[in-house]
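Why do we care about 3D structure at all? Because function follows from shape, and shape follows, mostly, from sequence. That is the central idea of this module. The next example makes it concrete: a single protein chain, its amino acid sequence, and then its structure expressed as tokens.
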Amino acid sequence: MQTIEKKSSLFNRMLIAIVSLLVIAAIAISFRLAFPEGKTIFAGQRPTNLGIQSGQLAPCPSSPNCVSSFSQTTEHKIEPLTYNSTPAEVMAKLKKVIQSLERTKIITETDNYLYAEFTSALMGFVDDVEFLLDEGKKVIQVRSASRLGDSDFGVNRQRIETIRINLNKI
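And the structure:
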């Protein structure tokens, strides 16, 4: 009898936890739909380690929600973007590709660096995406990282691959 009561108590606690999470998600989604351009509780804070540091982009954190062409770990490694035009032309093309994607805001751009924020449609999660032109190797190094959470369900990797495909089409 005691085992049944323990199972029932555990089930009730799990049910309460799941319902609580669903309520929080419903409130967050409602807020996002009511204020689509506003910041959400899931936007997080802009990292302080962005930009060019010693000729590279910041390393990925240990969580799996980041990809970088500078990374040596299989989980985070992604190939840089390649190009066959002039640096000015490829950066203009890259900017055009990024601006064609939804919920994207370019924050910083120079002759060899571009930083943009990508915001998810439903919950308003923000990912920080950086591009660093390496003129000597004729590549654009990339880094795409989620600000919050642990898993990104492959969104950062897919984003870079989409940008690669679109950049090659132009």
